[in-house]
């Protein structure tokens, strides 16, 4: 039996998302529960994968099934492709498993040609509609399938409007639209070199292939990488008979959410345009009306629509984002999906759904995308400063947040400016999918046109980027890179501030304040803590960072990098003295100067942690990172050490390494210069003793972490130094103090010999930054040079330094745990690379049995939530 490549909407349901894509599965589900959906069929995601396997062609088996389904569709609708009595017109729509705005644009009114359009014009007695459909179809097909740029057609429309003295598309007459269609076809011919295709079948296959092709376009690839969507999934294609919102004033089209996607507030939220089709609402062709105004225009359809909203929300038990069309007063549903929402709205909706009895706490926790929490942790405007400022203008608060930056006018400029470290606000007439990469790097987005459901708004909310849209008061001069608002002209590089909640735009920079976890955020976090098993610590080198992380819920420090403490001007000098010393005694003398500072640092850190665990990593980087570069500094050092400038320079030269990443660093330093480990141990232990005295109720138990172990014997050499020093300090102080000595696991050999090391170590902490570079054999500092080529060749789908390579690096981690835990039942295991704050990596850490993850302070809530979701998905004892 041949595989089934094509499904009628009647044959599917919401559970078939992987096969039918999100849009297809939900069209099927809406059909199943009896909602008014124009019928059609879905070509599966597997057909897309097959298309690529067959060398970008649709094979005969799939073609046969598509052809058979066209016949079925003709039967269901009673219309026929290319017919002169009752022609079938369809839309062709892409739909991946996860919604992807980076993909193909929809094609509407497919099936039209010179003959069919005349049949429609005549039979319907509505030539304006017929020609409107035709010109739209030529426009969309040329752009999407043949990749003739949109702008040529838009220019022709603008010329026509100017010629006729009208400002809006709807004011163009049947004759105007007819003329436009002819111009469009001529444009097509001049760009493509052949006539616009008139055979509906040919048009359909062209469109289907374009959808498949779009799966691999650069925009889609970037979007997938950012959103963890595997390339192997493929996209489905939906072929659906048309409902017409452009037949007159008793027709229209709209987009609506069952709750406010910006705030989460309950109640219908959306926009509607009369006598319009498809993307008109989103594209900002005309400014749409609020959904509630639909009630006056179309009372019947509106009533039905509000019922549908309730049915769908109950059915999916989540906020729905719906697209619909009204044809002569009759409602047609064209799409529903769980609506994209801001982080703020996501938290409110999840809590409300629990309170409304629709969801359990676990389900609410599982509903939040941890990656979005990031935005809530970013600074908000200082309310006082905000009140004192006068807005220049007010648009729609399309995506909340506070953004300040320099004005740029193109997505490309945004990228260039951001790459050199500038904060930018992207100001556009309206955005289109090509702008995605620029939108991504911008602090905020400001558009002149477009409503709450415009491209800019939807994408910005998805990315958690602040956006103000539809600020029509702006007088834009894109060509000269300037605009005027509130009587002031802004040029490229001028500062503005956007408030994405109110839609207000301000001149200059408005100060911001740190965010906090309160309200619904706090409630969700409390649920997350209730369900998670994995502990969450933080990487913090300073008491300020540690305090911030504690506020955000960190249960300890998983990594304190001590080298950062040496860069203070007073200390760095002593440290340099140590580096250029000739004897152990000299080095000890220099280290003695640093000891009190280091001890003070640790005391402050312990205080900030209030008795919770603190892991301190001993000196890790190669010494050349500390030596002076400036002549003046070198002279100063020479003087202090009674050496000639040349001697110092020679020492500096001698520290040069060919591959510092694998050079004289980590515990190798402590093996050659044990006095460094002695000094650091004294600081750790003395600080702990002091803090313990001050806070008898805390249970101090410092964790000393030796970096870069690859061989148990080298670990033992350093451990011996640490233990002897620590025990002596404790004895001298006449107190009891527990401490631990463990190691970073960041070299593959440490994983391979983890059973040996675990016998001697109290804990392991995976340093997955180094472990990743050592496992792949490339440096994270140089990977940027070839990663793009690796993405293009589908060798990598994501950056292994951001998202843990579970196959290779993950296997080493698993091996280390499996070898280590049995020989040392007390061994605790964590991770402290960048990956500790990446949700999919956190899930992996949960699954392989780590005790904790450690991440930067602002990732702590992300990790807490991801850890809870991992437990809910895959419970562990
Ligand atoms: P996107 O995924 O970008 O939202 P869609 O496939 O949903 O693209 O199509 C965009 C819009 O085109 C829809 O919101 C709807 O207004 C219009 N559209 C799509 N199919 C039809 C149809 N069969 N009849 C009428 N309008 C349609
Ligand atoms: Mg849609
Ligand atoms: Mg390291």
TrEMBL record:
Active-site residues, record numbering mapped to chain: 455, 832
EC number: 2.7.9.1
Domain of life: Bacteria
Listed cofactors: Mg(2+)
Database matches in Pfam families: PEP-utilizers, PEP-utilizers_C, PPDK_N
Residues binding Mg(2+): 746, 770
Keyword presence, Nucleotide-binding: yes
Domain PEP-utilising enzyme C-terminal: 520-871
EC class: transferase
Every PEP-utilising enzyme mobile domain range: 422-503
A single GO molecular function term of this UniProt record: ATP binding
Coiled-coil parts of chain: none
Record has Metal-binding as a keyword: yes
Family membership: Belongs to the PEP-utilizing enzyme family.
Name of the protein this chain belongs to: Pyruvate, phosphate dikinase
Organism: Oribacterium sinus F0268
């Amino acid at each position: 039996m041949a595989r089934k490549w094509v499904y009628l909407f009647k044959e599917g349901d919401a559970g078939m998302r992987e096969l039918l894509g999100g849009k297809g599965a939900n069209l099927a589900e809406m059909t199943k529960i009896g909602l008014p959906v124009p019928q059609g069929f879905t070509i599966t995601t597997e057909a897309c994968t097959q298309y690529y396997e067959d060398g970008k062609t649709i094979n005969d088996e799939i073609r046969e099934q598509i052809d058979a389904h066209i016949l079925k569709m003709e039967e269901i609708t009673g219309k026929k492709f290319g017919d002169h009595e009752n022609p079938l017109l369809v839309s062709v729509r892409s739909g991946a498993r996860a919604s992807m705005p980076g993909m193909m644009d929809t094609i509407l009114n497919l099936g039209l040609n010179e003959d069919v359009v005349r049949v429609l014009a005549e039979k319907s007695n509505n030539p304006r509609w017929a020609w409107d459909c035709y010109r739209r179809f030529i426009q969309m097909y040329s752009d999407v399938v043949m990749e003739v740029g949109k702008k040529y057609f838009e220019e022709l429309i603008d010329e026509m409007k100017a010629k006729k003295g009208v400002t809006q598309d709807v004011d163009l007459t049947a004759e105007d639209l007819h003329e436009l269609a002819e111009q469009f076809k001529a444009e097509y011919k001049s760009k493509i070199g052949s006539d616009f295709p008139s055979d509906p079948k040919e048009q359909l296959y062209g469109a289907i292939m374009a959808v498949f092709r779009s799966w691999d376009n650069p925009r889609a690839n970037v979007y997938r990488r950012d959103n963890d969507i595997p390339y192997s999934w493929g996209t489905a294609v939906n072929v659906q008979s048309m409902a017409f919102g452009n037949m007159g004033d008793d027709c229209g089209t709209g987009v609506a959410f069952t709750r406010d996607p910006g705030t989460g507030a309950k109640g219908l939220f959306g926009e509607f345009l009369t006598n319009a089709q498809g993307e008109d609402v989103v594209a900002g062709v005309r400014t749409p009306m609020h959904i509630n105004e639909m009630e006056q225009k179309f009372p019947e359809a509106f009533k039905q629509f509000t019922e549908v909203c309730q049915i769908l929300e109950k059915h999916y038990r989540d906020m729905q984002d719906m697209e619909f069309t009204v044809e002569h007063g009759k409602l047609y549903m064209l799409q529903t999906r769980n609506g994209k929402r801001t982080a703020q709205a996501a938290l409110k909706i999840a809590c409300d759904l629990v309170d409304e009895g629709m969801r359990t706490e676990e389900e609410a926790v599982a509903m939040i995308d941890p990656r979005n929490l990031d935005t809530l942790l970013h600074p908000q405007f200082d309310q006082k400063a905000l009140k004192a400022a006068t807005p220049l203008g007010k648009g729609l608060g399309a995506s909340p947040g506070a953004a300040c930056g320099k004005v740029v006018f193109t997505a490309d400029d945004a990228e260039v400016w951001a790459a050199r470290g500038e904060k930018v606000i992207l100001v556009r007439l309206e955005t289109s999918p090509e702008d995605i990469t620029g939108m991504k790097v911008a602090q905020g987005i400001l558009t002149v046109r477009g409503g709450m459901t415009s491209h800019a708004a939807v994408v910005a909310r998805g990315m958690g980027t602040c956006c103000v849209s539809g600020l029509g008061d702006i007088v834009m001069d894109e060509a000269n890179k300037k605009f005027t608002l509130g009587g002031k002209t802004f040029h490229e590089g001028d500062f503005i501030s956007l408030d994405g909640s109110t839609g207000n735009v301000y001149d200059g920079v408005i100060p911001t304040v740190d965010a906090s976890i309160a309200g619904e955020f706090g409630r969700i976090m409390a649920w997350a803590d209730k369900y998670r098993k994995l502990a969450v610590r933080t990487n913090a080198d300073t008491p300020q960072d540690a305090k911030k992380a504690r506020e955000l819920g960190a249960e300890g420090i998983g990594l304190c990098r001590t080298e950062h403490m040496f860069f203070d001007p007073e200390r760095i000098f002593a440290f340099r003295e140590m580096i250029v010393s000739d004897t152990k005694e000299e080095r000890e003398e220099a280290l003695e100067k640093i000891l009190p500072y280091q001890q003070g640092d640790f005391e402050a850190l312990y205080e900030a942690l209030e008795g919770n665990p603190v892991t301190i990593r001993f000196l890790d980087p190669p010494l050349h990172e500390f030596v002076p570069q400036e002549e003046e500094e070198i002279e100063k050092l020479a003087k202090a050490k009674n050496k000639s400038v040349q001697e110092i320079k020679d020492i500096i030269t001698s520290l040069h390494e060919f591959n510092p990443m694998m050079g004289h660093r980590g515990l190798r330093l402590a093996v050659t210069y044990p006095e460094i480990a002695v000094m650091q141990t004294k600081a750790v232990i003395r600080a702990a003793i002091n803090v313990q005295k001050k806070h008898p109720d805390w249970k101090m138990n410092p964790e000393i972490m030796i970096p870069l172990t690859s061989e148990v014997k080298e670990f033992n050499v350093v451990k011996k130094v640490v233990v002897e020093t620590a025990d002596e300090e404790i004895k001298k102080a006449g107190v009891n103090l527990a401490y631990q000595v463990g190691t970073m696991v960041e070299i593959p050999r440490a994983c391979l010999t983890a059973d040996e090391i675990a016998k001697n170590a109290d804990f392991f902490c995976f340093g997955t930054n180094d472990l990743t570079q050592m496992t792949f054999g490339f440096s994270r500092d140089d990977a940027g040079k070839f990663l793009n080529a690796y993405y293009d060749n589908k060798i990598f789908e994501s950056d292994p330094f951001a998202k843990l390579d579970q196959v290779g690096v993950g296997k080493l981690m698993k091996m280390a745990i499996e070898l280590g835990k049995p020989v040392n039942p007390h061994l605790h295991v964590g991770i402290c690379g960048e990956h500790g704050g990446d949700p999919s990596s956190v899930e992996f850490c949960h699954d392989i049995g780590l005790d904790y993850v450690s991440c930067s302070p602002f990732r702590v809530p992300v990790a807490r939530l991801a850890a809870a979701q991992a437990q809910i998905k895959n419970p562990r004892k």
